[in-house]
């Protein structure tokens, strides 16, 4: 084996270990700790496995422990399967979490026990098996428009397709150009390490970006712009209504058990339910109402109606929420809670109406959900108790 490929391969392993370590730290700190779910758990497993396996490869080379090096190379092949499982859980699909464990164990045992003559061939097969899960990820990604439109996942989808092409090409080359010595494996490993480095980097961008976006650490430009537009429009309409003392109200609606739905069915399923929820709110309340959504699973309505009309609309929308799960895919029956803040009681300041409406919705949720609360003495007492020194 020549010195140049050996040194290059070693440096690539160090780079892969560094990025895998960073990915593990960020995934645990930003994703799993803030938004614990099946998806973030599988992603943590993927990066932690890549980190430990790369350390094992490096330690095996430094200490001349060939069995450890080969077993670690095999274990590394399970990381793409764990990433695939995480994204399937994120998209509300069955994750098949056993696949990562099975591939990591089988590849590690095979590469550690196979003879020198067949090692390169076994490595090509294990690399091809790992790429199959990158291919499955690409297929799952391309099937749904909302997944294809997620720019955070696009780089990973592209590099996953390249991963498959590289693995298939490497496997086919093994038939046309049979292994002739250690240099063949050194070159193959350099190519595989470069591909894995790019793959882990793109996966890190997708995983941390999605976790930060859904954890509320960042807001998408579209969501932020829509909510800001609602705030400007609602503020202007309330200022005009104040001059004539018209009857206006703010209704704050929120899906009950939104976090449980996210963890059991995935963020995509929750996003779909939230979109149906907002559409239902728009269809129930009068056309001249303004509807905005400050976050997933919530809807805020500015209603130019008398109290009796607002009450009827509230009852109607809450009755329709359980029917939003049209395909029966959720393990939890969807319900909603609502807080009703009338301007006749609180004045025409939008921030005050939204804030007290949100507190009333929280109170309704604490009382069991699937109900509404009008801002009154209970909500005021709740606000006072939160501001009292302890």
Would you write up a description of this structure?
With 390 residues, the protein is an alpha+beta fold. 71% of the residues lie in helices and 7% in strands. It has helices spanning 3-32, 38-62, 66-76, 79-90, 98-113, 116-143, 145-148, 154-176, 182-214, 221-244, 258-265, 267-284, 307-320, 343-346, 350-366, 377-387; strands spanning 249-255, 290-292, 298-303, 336-342, 371-374. α1 (3-32) packs antiparallel against α2 (38-62), α4 packs antiparallel against α5 (98-113) and α6 (116-143) runs antiparallel to α8 (154-176). The longest helix has 33 residues, at 182-214. The radius of gyration is 27 Å and the shape is elongated.
Label this structure with key terms:
16 helices, 390 residues, five-stranded mixed β-sheet, alpha+beta, transmembrane helix
Distance between the termini: 70 Å
Assess the beta-strand content as a share of residues: 5-15%
| Strand order across the largest sheet | 2-3-1-4-5
Helix-residue proportion: over 70%
The string of secondary-structure elements, in order, is HHHHHHHHHHEHHEEHEHHEH
Based on Cα principal axes, name the global outline. elongated
**SS elements, strand count:** 5
Q: Largest sheet, described in full?
A: 5 strands, mixed
What does this entry show, briefly?
Helices cover 71% and strands 7% of the residues. It has 390 residues and is an alpha+beta fold.
């Amino acid at each position: 084996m020549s010195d140049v490929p050996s040194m290059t391969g070693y440096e690539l392993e160090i780079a892969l270990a560094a990025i895998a370590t960073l990915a593990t730290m960020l995934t645990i700190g930003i994703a799993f700790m803030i938004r614990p779910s099946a998806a973030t758990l599988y992603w943590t497993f993927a990066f932690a496995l890549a980190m430990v396996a790369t350390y094992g490869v490096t330690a095996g080379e430094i200490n001349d422990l060939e069995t450890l090096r080969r077993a670690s190379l095999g274990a590394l092949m399970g990381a793409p399967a764990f990433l695939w499982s995480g994204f399937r859980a994120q998209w509300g699909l069955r994750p098949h979490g056993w696949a990562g464990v099975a591939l990591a164990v089988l590849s590690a045992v095979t590469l550690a026990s196979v003879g020198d003559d067949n090692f390169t061939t076994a490595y090509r097969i294990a690399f091809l098996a790992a790429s199959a899960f990158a291919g499955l990820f690409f297929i799952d990604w391309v099937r749904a428009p909302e997944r294809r439109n997620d720019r955070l996942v696009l780089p990973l989808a592209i590099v996953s397709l390249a991963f498959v092409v590289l693995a298939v090409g490497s496997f086919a080359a093994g038939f046309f150009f049979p292994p002739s010595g250690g240099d063949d494996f050194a070159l193959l490993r350099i190519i595989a390490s470069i591909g894995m480095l790019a793959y882990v980097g793109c996966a890190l961008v997708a995983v941390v970006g999605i976790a930060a976006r859904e954890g509320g650490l960042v807001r998408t430009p579209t969501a932020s712009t829509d909510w800001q537009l609602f705030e400007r429009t609602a503020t202007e309409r309330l200022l005009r209504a104040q001059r004539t003392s018209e009857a206006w109200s703010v209704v704050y609606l929120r899906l009950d058990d939104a976090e449980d739905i996210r963890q059991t069915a995935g963020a995509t399923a929750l996003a779909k339910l939230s979109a149906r929820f907002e559409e239902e709110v728009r269809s129930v309340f009068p056309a001249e109402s303004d509807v905005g959504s400050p976050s997933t699973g919530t809807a805020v309505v500015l209603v130019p109606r008398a109290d009796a009309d607002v009450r009827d609309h509230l009852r109607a929308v809450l009755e329709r929420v359980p029917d939003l799960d049209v395909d029966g895919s959720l393990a939890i029956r969807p319900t909603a809670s609502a807080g009703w803040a009338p301007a006749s009681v609180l004045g025409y300041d939008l921030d005050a109406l939204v804030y007290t409406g949100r507190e009333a919705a929280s109170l309704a949720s604490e009382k069991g959900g699937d109900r509404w609360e009008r801002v009154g003495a209970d909500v005021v007492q709740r606000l006072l108790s939160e501001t009292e020194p302890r």
